[in-house]
Amino acid sequence: MKRLLMAAAVAALTSGAAYAQDYPTKPVTFVVPFAAGGPTDKVARDLADTMRKALGGQIIIENVAGAGGTLGATKVAKAAPDGYTILLAHVAMATSPALYRNLQYKTLEDFEYIGLINEVPMTLIGRPTLPANNYAELLKWLNDNKGKINLANAGLGSASHLCGLLFMSTLKIDMTTVPYKGTGPAMTDLIGGQVDLMCDQTTNTTTQIEGGKVKAYAVTTAKRLATPALKHLPTLDESGLKGFNVTIWHGLYAPKGTPKPVLDKLNAALKTALKDPEFLKRQESLGAVVVTDNRVNPADHKKFVEAEINKWGPVIKAAGQYAD
């Protein structure tokens, strides 16, 4: 019996290795759980352009937007574990367990972790007609206009929603949150003056700040950014919100049960892509920081996500904002 079990195990390993040797034999789909044109979509398309060279096969993008990223994540969790359906998702992987009562997957159990990609700082921006021209003036304006402030976000569970929640809870100033169906329409209304403020990723705000279409007040990182368009902005920490440090990270995930040799090949291709000069240049221009530490490894990636679940859960529960 033992010999039969050992033989079966050896056969499985040999089969998996042979499968990985030929992989990929058809296009790999990166499922992006947000709309095309948004920050996460930009990261996915840049990574796919670079990673396909290292992987040796075509990578296509499929946008499955809705329910704060959980529709796309659910699709991948239930997909065939063959390495051809991969999820590229952001911090929603860690926040959805607290936001959604009836989540259709378990973040730490239903996926194979491939590696972290980058960390994207956030910027606090305002409509162009806002009277405040710097953070000190903004803080005064916020205190003078309590009960009348509108804070836009790209929808429940979005990066802008999370950053806004933390900003409000840290300041202890209530604002009316205005959810949109994506970053695009939220930014359009902010530029048009229909809402007052938004906290969003540099991948989406840098161009608008450069063009003078919005007012920029601060960045959410512990240190100032080196990006030319943003290096003049103070951090919220140095502006008085001690300990305020929010970055929106992106990672790659496969359905649970994907063969390890395939995961190893995907991880190796990811690591190669993260060192590509053109990819690094694209990310730097958007204020994103490519991950170079152990979180590019599957086990450390998973530990990081677990820590993020523990970080965001109390913030979301305190705000009392849930969805079915």
UniProtKB/TrEMBL annotation:
**Looking at the keywords, is Signal present?**
yes
The signal peptide annotation in the UniProt record is: 1-20
InterPro entries to which the protein is assigned, alphabetical? BUG, Bug_dom1
* Entry keywords, A to Z: Signal
Keyword NAD set for record: no
Looking up SUPFAM superfamilies in the UniProt record yields: Periplasmic binding protein-like II
Q: Which family is this protein grouped under? A: Belongs to the UPF0065 (bug) family.
Protein name, per record:
Tripartite tricarboxylate transporter substrate binding protein BugD
Query: Which lineage do the record's taxonomy fields give for this organism?
Result: Bacteria, Pseudomonadati, Pseudomonadota, Betaproteobacteria, Burkholderiales
